[in-house]
User: Which sequence fits this backbone?
């Protein structure tokens, strides 16, 4: 579960990225976070992965209070949130299998556990035969699937996808969204940050719209749909 | 069990990293080897020179002549008073007979000197000093001893040697410090460059939830291996170069005065110094260099 209570973030440059943001995402939800470039979407992601600290307000992520979290607890908090990025962020010199297994290595999983879990997750994202490939040998869509598999491998409570389809064509984008929807159906909370209106409109999900650092709409009808109507 | 499993994995990762980032590892090894060889080579030169100078110092002795009216027994007793003087390391007695014998021998057993009568000479002590820079005061103290007739000293040589030693000490400390600073700068820059190459990888690891210790350990192992390889490489190169130069120098007629210390004599200190320097630079360098990338 994510809870933002009256969160404000002002960068050291003086730029005000978020202004009194309040939002709550419950376990098992599928949420789109939308808004134009510079609206504060990336700041929200950086805040909930503890890359940044809020200037004021409080943030709770899967039971961790981020405004008071100790540095050494941050890795453990991050393990409860699987993050997927637009540019995939795979380790280039590791195979697909090793990239996915890395998430399990850091929690001290045994070779046996890794051998059982990684093929299952790769199968889930449709990459059962790609385990031995290096990231650069895969298409963009496949690389994003590897990133999703890596985010999923430790069974996180939540997946946060930051523009996951930004580098993909419409068909691959739709497939990735379908995959995220099926992951959500298995009980994982999913939050997708995007500015792709068409993609958002194809799914009937909760949409949180943000502009100039403020939440301007939060509901099932979605900000973009309202704008069209 | 989990911890042992993790350690095993991280150790393997460290070894693997060294090969997957082969070029940067090679660059780090080359720079470290070059720096160690230069510093080691310079230290060996300094060591040989200082031994040569202290050898010269040993040869610069003071001759203390005993009153010719003293018989051998009385002359020898002067030695005990000479030994009481502070700066005297050793006083070796030489009788008039031994002095004549030695003189004739030094002249190539020339018949011309066969008729020298030992009673024309004096018994003497060959005195070695602890510190040649205090020669003037010591000679003055020796002169005060009863039974001492004359003293033959070479203050200009003693002063020269003392000056050489002082200059050598200052120059060697200065050059070694400069070389160390330059080496550390070069090595740390090479390692930083290697780490900069992997900053994205480290950021990914952090985002997945890896702890700093988990990320750091393979780099520590990698640094250890780079350190060991560099130290071993530098040591054997140094050994080879030193032996080669030493044999060349000993073959040169003009260099006969110089006696080169055999490498075997400095083997252990060199192994320890190179090993410690290589490990320090490798491990400390790599761990310190990733520090700023861990702050994500």
Assistant:
């Amino acid at each position: 579960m994510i809870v933002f209570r009256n969160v404000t973030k002002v960068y050291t440059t003086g730029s005000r990225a978020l202004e009194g943001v309040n939002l709550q995402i419950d376990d098992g939800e599928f949420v789109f976070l939308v808004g134009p470039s510079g609206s504060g979407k990336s700041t929200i992601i950086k805040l909930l992965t503890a890359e940044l600290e809020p200037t004021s307000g409080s943030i709770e992520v899967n039971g961790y209070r981020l405004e008071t979290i100790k540095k050494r607890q941050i890795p453990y908090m991050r393990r409860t949130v699987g993050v997927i990025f637009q540019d995939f962020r795979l380790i280039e010199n590791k195979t697909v299998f090793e990239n996915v297994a890395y998430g399990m290595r850091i929690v001290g999983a045994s070779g046996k556990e890794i051998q059982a879990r990684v093929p299952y997750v790769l199968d889930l994202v449709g990459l059962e035969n790609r385990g031995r490939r290096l990231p650069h040998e895969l298409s963009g869509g496949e690389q994003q699937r590897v990133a999703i598999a890596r985010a999923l491998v430790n069974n996180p409570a939540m997946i946060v996808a930051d523009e996951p389809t930004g580098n993909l064509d419409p068909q691959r984008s739709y497939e990735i969204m379908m995959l995220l929807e099926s992951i959500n159906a298995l009980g994982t909370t999913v939050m997708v940050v995007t500015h792709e209106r068409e993609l958002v409109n194809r799914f009937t999900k909760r949409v949180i719209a943000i502009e100039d650092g403020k939440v301007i709409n939060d509901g099932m009808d979605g900000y973009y749909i309202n704008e069209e109507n | 069990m989990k911890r042992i499993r993790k350690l095993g994995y991280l150790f393997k990762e460290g070894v693997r990293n060294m090969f997957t980032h082969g070029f940067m590892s090679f660059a780090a090894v080359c720079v470290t080897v070059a720096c160690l060889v230069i510093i080691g080579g310079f230290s060996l030169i300094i060591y040989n020179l200082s031994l040569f100078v202290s050898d010269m110092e040993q040869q610069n002795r003071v001759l203390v002549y005993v009153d010719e009216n003293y018989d051998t027994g009385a002359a020898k007793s002067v030695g005990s008073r000479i030994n009481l003087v502070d700066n005297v390391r050793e006083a070796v007695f030489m009788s008039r007979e031994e002095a004549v014998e030695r003189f004739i021998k030094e002249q190539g057993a020339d018949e011309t000197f066969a008729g020298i009568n030992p009673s024309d000479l004096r018994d003497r002590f060959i005195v070695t000093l602890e510190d040649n820079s205090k020669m003037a005061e010591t000679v003055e103290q020796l002169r005060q001893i009863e039974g001492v007739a004359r003293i033959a000293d070479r203050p200009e040589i003693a002063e020269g040697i003392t000056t050489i030693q002082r200059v050598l000490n200052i120059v060697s400390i200065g050059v070694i410090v400069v070389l160390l600073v330059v080496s550390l700068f070069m090595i740390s820059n090479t390692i930083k460059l290697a780490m900069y190459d992997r900053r994205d990888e480290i950021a990914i690891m952090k985002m997945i939830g890896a702890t700093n210790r988990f990320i750091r350990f393979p780099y520590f192992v990698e640094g250890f291996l780079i350190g060991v390889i560099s130290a071993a490489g530098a040591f054997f190169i140094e050994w080879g170069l030193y032996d080669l130069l030493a044999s060349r120098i000993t073959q040169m007629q003009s260099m006969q005065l110089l006696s080169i210390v055999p490498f075997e004599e400095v083997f252990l200190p060199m192994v320890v110094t190179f090993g410690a320097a290589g490990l320090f630079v490798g491990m400390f360098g790599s761990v310190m260099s990733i520090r700023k990338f861990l702050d994500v």
